[in-house]
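Hi, here's the filled form for the chain we discussed.

Project: internal
Contact: R.S.
Residues: 124
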Amino acid sequence: MSLTIPRTEYEPVPTGEYPVRLTALRFVDGDYGPQLEWTLTLLDGEHEGADLRAWSSAKFTPAGPRVSKLAAWTNALTKGKTPIAGDFSSSWIEGKAAVAVVVQETKDGKTYSRVVDLKPANIE
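And the returned structure, exactly as it came back:
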């Protein structure tokens, strides 16, 4: 049986701030151990519906001098209502919206979009 798969082109999102919704969060094996892969879907504008991928360590440190990216981004998605006691639960952030801070970068001749931060959004 022959399969035909349409060709897709990757179009980097320009540097800027974009409203996004967390549509997937999953464990992946990274170069430095287990990581989380975040799928953030753009909610409006020219790139509405496009997905951005971002990665963080799987460490949840919500307080102290070095707050983890997982905790900081969870705080953005929960609009500052992240519990600081207990373990992380993805149910706190599933389907939540935030503002992604995106930087367009070039590495090895390829241009890509990198999510450098999430901020609280005024949308549900």
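Let me know if anything looks off before we file it.
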